């Protein structure tokens, strides 16, 4: 969901996990001139066609081929517990975005999937506090953003498995703790 806390969560996880890097879907938006406009004059940014998805897949696959040379900073994570012993050879890529699980070429790549949700009122409130370039036009949230979120969320619920749904109204600390714990469990499984 837009303004659900995806980027904030990803950045906090990056600081806690070994050899961790982030690829953000927002970095793959097409220029405004290439984004379609509907009959109401809304720029259709909340659809897959507004993004260079093939380039995103290519970036992820390039990272996967050689994560050690991907430019990941290999600082020790800001974690004092013993969860991450002997992880020098562990590389983690967090891919964050709003239309990730609806793009079939990506679905074979995920180890874990998390999906942040927000109720309509909270999402609209958060969206209204953000400045976008280009700016949201009047009625854009109700006329395009929210309907597209519901459409893609419904598609996800029908077609995807192994998705962990997270309540975006929970505190950043609760969300971080939940996802971090899940990643640590996954790392332990992979190392067995």
Automatic annotation (TrEMBL):
InterPro entries (UniProt xref): P-loop_NTPase (IPR027417)
Enzymatic reactions: beta-nicotinamide D-riboside + ATP = beta-nicotinamide D-ribonucleotide + ADP + H(+); beta-D-ribosylnicotinate + ATP = nicotinate beta-D-ribonucleotide + ADP + H(+)
Family to which the UniProt record says this protein belongs: Belongs to the uridine kinase family. NRK subfamily.
Pathway membership, UniProt: Cofactor biosynthesis; NAD(+) biosynthesis
UniProt protein name: NRK1 kinase
Keyword Metal-binding set for record: yes
Keyword Kinase: yes
Organism the protein comes from: Ibidorhyncha struthersii
Keywords, in A-Z order: ATP-binding, Kinase, Magnesium, Metal-binding, Nucleotide-binding, Pyridine nucleotide biosynthesis, Transferase
């Amino acid at each position: 969901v837009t303004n659900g806390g995806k980027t904030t969560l990803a950045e906090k996880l990056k600081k806690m996990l070994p050899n961790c890097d982030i690829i953000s879907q927002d970095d793959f938006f097409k220029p405004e001139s290439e984004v379609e406009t509907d009959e109401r004059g809304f720029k259709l940014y909340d659809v897959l066609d507004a993004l260079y998805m093939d380039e995103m897949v290519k970036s992820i696959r390039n990272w996967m081929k050689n994560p050690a040379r991907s430019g990941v900073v290999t600082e020790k994570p800001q974690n004092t517990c013993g969860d991450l012993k002997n992880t020098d050879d562990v590389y983690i890529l967090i891919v964050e975005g709003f239309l990730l699980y609806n793009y079939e070429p990506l679905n074979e790549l995920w180890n874990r999937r998390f999906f942040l949700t927000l109720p309509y009122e909270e999402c609209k409130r958060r969206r209204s506090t953000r400045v976008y370039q280009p700016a949201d036009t009047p009625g854009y949230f109700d006329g395009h953003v929210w309907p597209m979120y519901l459409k893609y969320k419904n598609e996800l619920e029908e077609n995807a498995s192994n998705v962990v749904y997270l309540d975006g109204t929970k505190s950043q600390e609760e969300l971080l703790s939940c996802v971090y714990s899940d990643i640590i469990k996954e790392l332990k499984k992979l190392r067995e």
